[in-house]
Write a structure and sequence with these properties.
By secondary structure, the chain is mainly alpha-helical. The chain contains 3 helices and 2 strands, in the order αβααβ.
């Protein structure tokens, strides 16, 4: 039986761990397919690739980390709002990284 308490060692995008990279590539591929298949209907599809998000759960799981480098949820919300608005109308099929200052 698999140990359910196991957690992958690569939990941040900046580590460029193979397993995380494959997941990210998979999301980007699906998003690009959705964008292409729905562009004639006027629908857009983009994917946001955040670094470590500053949430209470992440702070609790990494109490010694430098929280100031993490992505604020409000920054992600602002990006989503911009993409959904008129300013983002020409953005379609994009994979948009938002890493905070982790890099």
């Amino acid at each position: 039986m698999r140990d359910r308490s196991w957690k992958p060692r690569c939990h941040r995008a900046r580590t460029k761990c193979g397993c995380l990279q494959r997941v990210t590539d998979g999301h980007a591929f699906v998003m690009k397919t959705v964008a292409i298949e729905n562009r004639d209907a006027g629908l857009r599809a983009n994917v946001i690739l955040p670094g470590t998000i500053d949430t209470p759960a992440n702070r609790q799981s990494s109490p010694d980390a430098d929280f100031s480098t993490w992505v604020r949820p409000t920054a992600i919300a602002s990006l989503i709002t911009w993409l959904a608005g008129d300013a983002g109308r020409d953005i379609n099929g994009a994979a948009i990284p938002i890493y905070g200052s982790e890099i």
